[in-house]
Amino acid sequence: MPNFFAPCPRGLEKLLADELATLGAAEVRATDGGVAFSGDWPLCYRANLESRFASRILWRVQEPRPYRNEQDIYQMALGLAWPRWFDVACTIRVNVAAIKCPLKSLEFVTLKIKDAVCDKFREHCGERPSVDTVQPDMRIHAFIQGEVLTLYLDTSGDALFKRGVRLHTNIAPLRENLAAGILRLAGWKPGMPLLDPMCGSGTFLIEAAQMSLKIAPGIARHFAFERLKNFDAAKWEEMRQQSIAAQLPVSELPIYGSDLYGDELKATHRNLEEAGIREAVDLKQANVLEISAPEEHGVLVANLPYGERMGELQELEALYPKLGDVLKQKFGGWNAYLFTADLRLPKLMRLAASRRTPLYNGAIECRLFEYKIVTGSNRNRTAD
Question: Burial code of 14-47, b = ≥16 C-beta within 10 A, e = fewer?
Fold first, then answer.
């Protein structure tokens, strides 16, 4: 049975492990930054199609093995059956990640693995695959931990947070799988009212609407496993058709989004239209400091701006206490989840966070702050 590894945003490992187990994965084991598991090839297809939290699904083609130098790594890669797995016409790219690697140059390691793959094909069929570092057909991932190497073939292609529907984005959009994880950590479920008062390009809204309508996150895109020689096209098409048949009709949902800026709201409109779910979400242009709760109870979620320049920091210092007042005065009975890299937030908000969940947006350390808003007062909230 093939072995796989699914990387994910740090902080979402347990959510991903539970999700993969629900999909039918065996030997599920969460580690820092991802989840190892095993399963058959239809499970690999399903994980790519349905996982909301994984960044990729990597097939482990070389078990962890010790090496001494770059030549050992070359020989290890040369010994693998690359021509049995994909055609020489496929373009390739090699990615190397390392923790405490004693070798001097990861670029040289990357080159040696690429040479080994090309030499293997030349041995096998007299030709070598071309390299494409931008949009390759096949991505080969090497992971070095100390003096141990593991090799993977990427079955996803583009990262899985690229759902194929959010085409219009702002400068620093939240990745879709992280947004899905935040919704789950917030305890939000389909049918519960959801408000994003600073919706940007609409990531939270799109993820929530797709969850509500049972739209698989990967239904609008292609995957690298479709180029593998063992690809079962009939099984994949059957899986896709079953997924499409399970979708619910698009209808108005208790999902609300607003933003101060018209350009951001236009991007959200376009993204929802591209995804075919525009009528599911209630959108309006509004200042976060002037909005009211759209329903009696619900979940408010926001990816707060965090400034890097002095002027931006001063603006945020003025915004946070006002935002805290809005939550106290207008959102009694709601649970608010604020995601930010600005760890000064609770002090400046003048509200006690009942939970602080460490998460990473790429390499940036962030927190998801939970505020359970009591009608009329917030004095008795539980501090962290």
Answer: ebbbebbeebebeebebeebbbbbebebebbbbb
